[in-house]
Structure formats: structure tokens, C-alpha cells
Specification:
With about 260 residues, the protein is mostly helical. It is about 80% helix and about 0% strand. The relative contact order is 0.06.
Length: about 260
Amino acid sequence: MFKFIILLTSLLLFSKSAYADQADFYIQRAKQKIQYENYQGAIEDLTKASYMAPNNLQIHILQAQTREKTGNFKAAVAGYDFCINLVSTNTSDEATRAFLLLSRARAKKQINNYQSALEDLRIAQELYKEQNDFQNCKKTAELINIVESCLNKQDTVEKTFLSTNDYVQLAKEAFKKNDFQEAILKITKALEVDSSNPLFYKIRAMSKANLEDYEGALLDFQNASVIYQNQNDFNKYEKTRQMILKIKNNQELNAKEGI
């Protein structure tokens, strides 16, 4: 019985090693195809590699980048989504997470998803600041300005019917009635008009927290904290950072703090 277990363990280790070698073969071949602009062939090889090593971050980043080169930005965004989730699960490498958020934002910009791109960029900017990576922080700030300009030029039909203040008031009323989903819908409309108001992010964050969407709440609080910091409003910045810590520590938030 003991010998059988040893044999089985050896077979499993050999199998893993063989899969890793095969995955590496497809990765290297994909890189060569990318150099010759054979992007479809590279994607096919990377897909095969992902079967062999499903949690290999390098494979999924290359896939997303290659899809960008083909102009398939929606697929690239989905690829970066997977990479970001993989990083959040398997590592605490914030530099990699910032890079992925920046890459996803660029892809989102190409499909005119400016609001979501801004959210990614502001979190990436915060991460770069924490690492004292001023070069990438500057690049991210420049892209933020470009995306904000695109967003301001983007016309929406609903803007002509309701003002930002109307949406905020409706969101607050929904929040008081514990209709948090409606509050999120209304405050998101306000953000589409004005993405530079940190209070809007805080209202949406509190609404998401009440729906137990803690990851979404954390992202919105982080957006608010970045804007407060850029505005040099350090009092509200510190309060928002305290909310972020509470969520990370699974502590209950005071509903009045966000409204």
C-alpha cells in the first residue's frame, strides 16, 4: 500500500512537470508568433497553455495584451478581469495589480467605457503612490485627464432630463428607505455626469456595503479617498481611509458616515 502511494505521488508530480513543460512550450511559441504579428495563432497557443497551467498569470496577461493588438478590446477587458481576480487570490503584489488596472483602463477607454476606466485608473494611481512609483503615477494621472476629457464630451440622453443634484437627491431618498439598489442606480447616473465628486462614490460605497458587496464598496471608497487627497481635503481623506480599514477588517459601518 505504501509503495502504491509513493508511485501515485511520483506519477502526479511527473504529470504536473510535464504539463508545465508543455505550457512553457506554447508560451514561447506564442511569443514568437506575436513578434511576427500572427496574433490569432498566438492566442490559440496561449489558450492551449492555459489548459495546462490555468493559474499562470503570464499566460493570461499575454492573452489579454494580444487581444488588444487584434482590436478585440472587450475580450481584452475580460482577460484583465481574470488576471486581476487571479492576483487578488494568489498574491499581494500591488505593483502587478496596479499594472493590470492601468492596462484594463486603457482597454475600457477603447470601448468608450470611460467611467469604469476612471475607477480603475484612480485605484492604480493610489497603488503607485503607496509604492512611491512616481513615474507610473504621473503616467496614470495623464491618462486620467484624457479619460475625463472623453467622458465630459460623451453625450447621454438622460443628462437633458435630470441634473446631477436631482440624481443625488433621489439616491439619498432611496438610501433612507433602505432601497440600496435604487440608490446605486441613481448615484451612478450622477457619477456619469460628474465623476470627480467624492461624495457620490461614498454614497454608492455605503449602498454597496449594505448589500454586502464589500469588494465594490471598497473600490468606491478608494476612489473617493484618491479624489479627496488630490483636493488636499485631508480631513475627509482620513475619514474615508478609516471606512476602508473597517471594510477590510469586516467591521460594521455607520450609515450616516456615507451620506
